[in-house]
């Protein structure tokens, strides 16, 4: 199967070379990632504009010589704005079993006060807010996966989303004329605390919020939290119902300047009696218009109160964008456990090709 991965990589690089020859002027521009599949809203504002993207993925890891090739995402996104104060959104993943990821009705009262009701990403963690088509590495970090609802310690797998209502806005313009920005951004929401596309499974509601402070243009200091409670479970030893909290807190910093970027976050969580935490540091550099290069250190402790090993990933990544609507991600990672240097270690290679519709 190594040959299959090498073949995919070869085909991708060959396609890149032809695309590069066809359009050498294409540049890395995240704004171009909003190309509409169909723009009906110009003629009828209440009709949606439709966008989407397709991502093909392949990976290989050395510990068991395993590999995979699959259709990772087929996302279709529709949004409309019947009035200046009213909007709606819908995002569906058609890969595998089709699932609704986002669906909401949005009310806009201005910079200071906006309100959404529906299903969308919870405010916890900076990385959780980034779309997979613009995320620097192919996959989320361990802490975000296990503490923000992707492959959560609670057993939930809801892609960082939940059904609820959310209030958000920004305030305090600072900076010189022509370069002003909001000093403060805030988000708070009430959520079911259940699986994706599921009604609440208990009588409790979860609360999540985030505050971002932007002291200077390009620098964000963030703090976010999540207070939740799952259904109580029966303790097999004491034979009494046991309370199952699902609480999270995250601290983050992000800096972007010209061709450089840096983001780091620390997340801590309590799931029932289990206490977990993780952190990562990501740095990036754009040496030319079409290449983005990244290096990342990612660590996670499943149980921070015990002697369980810290799971580490040291990763290198590259994104090449030969055309505005086609790009390739290449990632290499070395996985190792801090307390068991001779076990559970392996090399991991990934390739992902993305086409924006």
Question: Which descriptors apply to this entry?
Answer:
about 350 residues, Porin, 16-stranded antiparallel barrel, 2 helices, globular
How are the elements arranged and paired?
Layout: H1 2-22, E1 38-39, E2 49-61, E3 66-83, E4 86-93, E5 99-108, E6 114-121, H2 142-147, E7 161-174, E8 181-191, E9 206-213, E10 219-234, E11 241-257, E12 260-271, E13 274-285, E14 291-301, E15 311-323, E16 326-337, E17 346-356
Antiparallel strand pairs: 1-2, 2-3, 2-17, 3-4, 4-5, 5-6, 6-7, 7-8, 8-9, 9-10, 10-11, 11-12, 12-13, 13-14, 14-15, 15-16, 16-17
* Quaternary organisation: single chain
Widest sheet: strand ordering? 2-3-4-5-6-7-8-9-10-11-12-13-14-15-16-17
CATH topology (fold) name: Porin
How many strands? 17
- Profile the largest sheet: 16 strands, antiparallel, barrel
- Counted up, domains total 1
Report the top-level CATH class. Answer: Mainly Beta
Q: Can you tell me the CATH architecture?
A: Beta Barrel
Give the overall shape. Answer: globular
Computed over alpha carbons, the radius of gyration is 21 Å
In which range does the helix fraction lie? under 10%
Structural class: mainly beta
Please tally the helical runs, counting DSSP H or I stretches of 4 or more residues.
Answer: 2
Low-confidence stretches: 1-34
Order of helices and strands: HEEEEEEHEEEEEEEEEEE
Mean pLDDT across the residues is: 86
Q: State which percent range the strand residues make up.
A: over 45%
CATH H-level homologous superfamily name: Porin
Distance between the termini: 30 Å
């Amino acid at each position: 199967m190594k040959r299959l991965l090498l073949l995919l990589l070869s085909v991708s690089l060959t396609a890149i070379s032809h695309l590069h020859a066809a359009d050498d002027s294409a540049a890395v521009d995240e704004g171009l990632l909003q190309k509409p599949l169909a723009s009906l809203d110009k003629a009828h504002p209440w009709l949606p504009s439709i966008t989407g993207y397709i991502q093909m993925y392949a990976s290989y890891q050395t510990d068991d010589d395993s590999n995979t090739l699959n259709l990772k995402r087929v996302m279709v996104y529709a949004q409309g704005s019947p009035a200046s104060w009213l909007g709606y959104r819908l995002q569906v993943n058609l890969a595998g079993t089709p699932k609704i990821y986002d669906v909401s009705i949005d009310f806009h009262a201005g910079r200071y006060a906006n309100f959404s009701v529906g299903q969308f990403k919870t405010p916890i963690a900076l990385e959780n807010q980034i779309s997979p088509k613009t995320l620097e590495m192919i996959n989320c970090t361990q802490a975000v996966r296990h503490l923000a609802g992707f492959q959560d310690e609670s057993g939930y797998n809801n892609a960082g989303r939940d059904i609820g209502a959310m209030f958000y806005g920004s305030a305090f313009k600072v900076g010189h004329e022509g370069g002003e920005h909001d000093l403060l951004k805030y988000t708070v929401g009430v959520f079911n605390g259940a699986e994706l596309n599921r009604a609440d499974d208990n009588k409790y509601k979860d609360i999540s919020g985030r505050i971002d402070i932007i002291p200077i243009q390009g620098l964000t200091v963030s703090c976010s939290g999540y207070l939740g409670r799952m259904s109580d479970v029966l303790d097999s030893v004491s034979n009494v119902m046991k309370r199952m909290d699902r609480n999270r807190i995250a601290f983050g910093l992000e800096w972007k300047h010209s061709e450089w970027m840096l983001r780091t976050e620390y997340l801590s969580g309590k799931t029932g009696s289990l206490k977990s935490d993780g952190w990562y540091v990501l740095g990036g550099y754009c040496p030319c218009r079409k290449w983005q290069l990244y290096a990342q250190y990612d660590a996670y402790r499943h149980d921070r109160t015990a002697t369980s090993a810290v799971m580490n990933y040291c990763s290198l990544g590259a994104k090449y964008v030969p055309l505005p609507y086609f790009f390739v991600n290449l990632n290499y990672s070395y996985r190792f456990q801090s307390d068991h240097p001779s076990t559970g270690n392996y090399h991991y290679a990934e390739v992902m090709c993305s086409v924006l519709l």
